[in-house]
Design brief:
It is built from five helices and four strands. With 142 residues, it is of the alpha+beta class. Strand 2 and strand 3 form a beta hairpin.
């Protein structure tokens, strides 16, 4: 009687564990799959300036960027000559914003787009984390 009871418990435990692993795999796939931007999607873009900037220039750039449609937040650092902004891609595009900035404010600026190597080196913790390994395993199955 004890042997049959133990077999039932082990069987049910393994079944529940297998179902939970399946649910986790479906959840990871569902959350990480590509999807089209919607009204709630916010994207980040970076502008690299090819000239020296003073604090007054940074303030002017920040003010100008905030005045553009779809801009959510702006940070401009004159020391590094970089501006970073978030925006809603359904309202505007980064390329349009940056080309308008160059033509309206007469700054030498380009959009920074990271290379594949930059993307891989973006977060050193991500490549060794358990969640990344689980994501990589699930994405290789599908």
């Amino acid at each position: 009687m004890k042997k049959a009871s133990l077999k039932k418990i082990v069987g049910w435990s393994l079944s529940v564990f297998a179902i939970l692993i399946l649910v986790l795999g479906v959840h990871i796939y569902w959350v990480t799959r590509p999807k089209a931007p919607d009204a709630h999607t916010i994207v980040m873009a970076r502008i690299d300036f090819k000239q020296d900037l003073k604090q007054a220039d940074a303030d002017k750039i920040t003010q100008w960027l905030y005045a553009q449609q779809g801009i959510d937040h702006v940070l401009c650092n004159p020391t590094t000559r970089i501006a970073v902004f978030t925006f809603f891609p359904v309202k505007n595009s980064a390329n349009n914003i940056i080309s308008a900035l160059v033509s309206n404010l007469n700054y030498k600026a380009v959009r920074f787009i990271p290379s594949a190597e930059d993307m891989k080196a973006g977060c050193p913790v991500a490549a060794t984390s358990i969640s990344y390994k689980a994501y990589h395993f699930v994405s290789s199955i599908f």
